[in-house]
Each structure stands twice: as structure tokens, then as C-alpha cells.
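Reply to dn_fold:

You asked what the input looked like. This is it:
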Amino acid sequence: MAQSWLALTIGNSRLHWAWFVGANLQETWDTKYLPIEILDQLIQRWVSGILAAELLPPLLVSTLDSQIPLYIASVVPAQTKLWQTYPHTKIITLDSIPLLGLYPTLGIDRALALLGAGETYGYPILVIDGGTALTFTGANRNRNLIGGAILPGVKLQLESLSQRTGALPAIQLPTDLPPRWAKETSTAIASGVLYTILAGIRDFITDWHDWFPDSKIAITGGDANLLLTSLETQYPEIKDRLIPDFRLIFWGIRSLVVSC
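and this is what came back:
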């Protein structure tokens, strides 16, 4: 019988979870960050055999064994250190990723998403991750990292304008793409952030396809739907070439676990 196991990716904003049975994904969910002292208590309860209902869906708490293997990919060292107290934790590091040319400071989330996309859709592959940071990461058909880029994501750009200036307000983005030439401040902020991000995405995709015309392009992350909707209005020919997949990191973790 295939064994159950959990995957946890610790991002900059939330905890992302997946439950697998063997290679089959059963369920995914997100949980908020908890204060470190509370999370530490939950982990200690888990160690003693009591699954944390605050972190897992009710069905899983009643279904899973408290000694279930837990595979973690984290970009937050303080959280990683806490989870290492759970004896059935496997921390995924770059040296376990079967891609070539990885550099030491490459984020484990980017590496796993690239692996997951490549193993799912084939190489060469470009991954666009619209998370807290907006990242581009690509590999060629030989699984060799070509490189990538990092810039502040949509929400981070909006927050920086409201927090680092004296007069610009915090805004919520409109449902529809705003007019490019705005006549009031909130719309001008939305215009500036969105249109420059969309133009940047188009530019990176165009350059990537100059190098790899037959490459697939996958998009993931919390802002992926927003970006796809905006691209559909502004650059529909670009949007139609993107594969939305919000589970790329989990596919990457699965390829490591199942191949063990």
C-alpha cells in the first residue's frame, strides 16, 4: 500500500501544504504564519503524537499517523529550524535537486518549481512565479539552469509606495486593468505597477523564446491569476502561451520523494 506523506513549503507570506499518497496528490491547503512560540508548541505536540489541528484539515487530523513523513522546502530559516525538531522531517536542500548549474544562493522554491515544471511539461522550460517576489527561472533541454531574474511582486511594489513615501496611499488593485494614463493618484499607482510588470513579463518571454522557440512556459504563485487576467487584456497572445499551475513546487517535491 502506498504511504502517505506531507509536503510543506514555507514561503515569505504563508505556509503551503500538500498531502500525497505515494505519487498521488490528495489535497492542498494554505495556513497563515503563526507566532514562533505558538508554532513551537504545536510542533512539540506533534512530536508527542498529537497532530496539529491548527495546521491540518480536520479530516487529515483524524486520518493521518502522527509519525507521517514531512518534506519541507523553506525560504525562512527561523521556521526551518523549528520544524527540524519533528523527527520525521526531511529538509529539502539545493544539493538534492537533480538540475545542473544551480548556484548556492538560488532559492529552493525557485529550484523546486523549475524541477516540477520541467518534469511535468518537459524541458526546456521557463517558470514565472508571481509571489511576494516576481521571479523568472529557466532551464534548457539538458536540465541546465540558464538563469533568471527577481523583482518585487505586485503587492510588494504597492506596499513600498505607501510605506516609503509621505503622500501616496495604500490601494487595492481594481478588478479590471486600469487606464494607462490616469488622472488620480490611486489609479496612477495601479497603472504604473501593473503596466510595467506586464511589459516586463512580455519582454522576458520574448527573449526566452528567441533562445528556446519550442519551450513551454508555466506560471504559478499567488498573483498568477491577477497577472493572467491582466495579460489577457493587454497581451492576449502572451497569455495564451502560458500554462497556469499552482502546484509546481509540489510536483518538484514529488519527483524527489517518489524517486527515492
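The two ends are 16 Å apart (CA to CA).
Hope that clears it up.
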